[in-house]
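Friendly challenge for the regulars: who can give me the structure tokens for this chain first? No prize, just bragging rights.
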Amino acid sequence: MKSQRSRISNDKFWRIYGQRARDPYKYYKKGWKDGDRLLSSGFYEGQTYGALEKCWVGFVIAKEKMEWDKIDLYAKRIQNLERELGIEVTDFSEWGID
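First reply, four minutes later:
Bragging rights claimed.
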């Protein structure tokens, strides 16, 4: 048995159940979320934390595969993003990275 939603047209559905949002991803495209501050790099704080998290994932994967060039790359990116966010900078001296 088909649901009622699939029996009516898309336009009629939105007329009955509410207005369609013009651009539901507007704030995510801009990178803006409540409470985010714009950093000196031109990126928002939330975007920078997202990049930091991705760099940590990349660092862990590179460490498991022993890809030294990528370990160095991700460590420098992590330190750069942490400085930009104003949080404690991770020490990678045991990996030979300043």
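The helical segments are 4-7, 10-17, 26-30, 45-65, 68-85. Residues 38-98 form one domain. Your move, everyone else.
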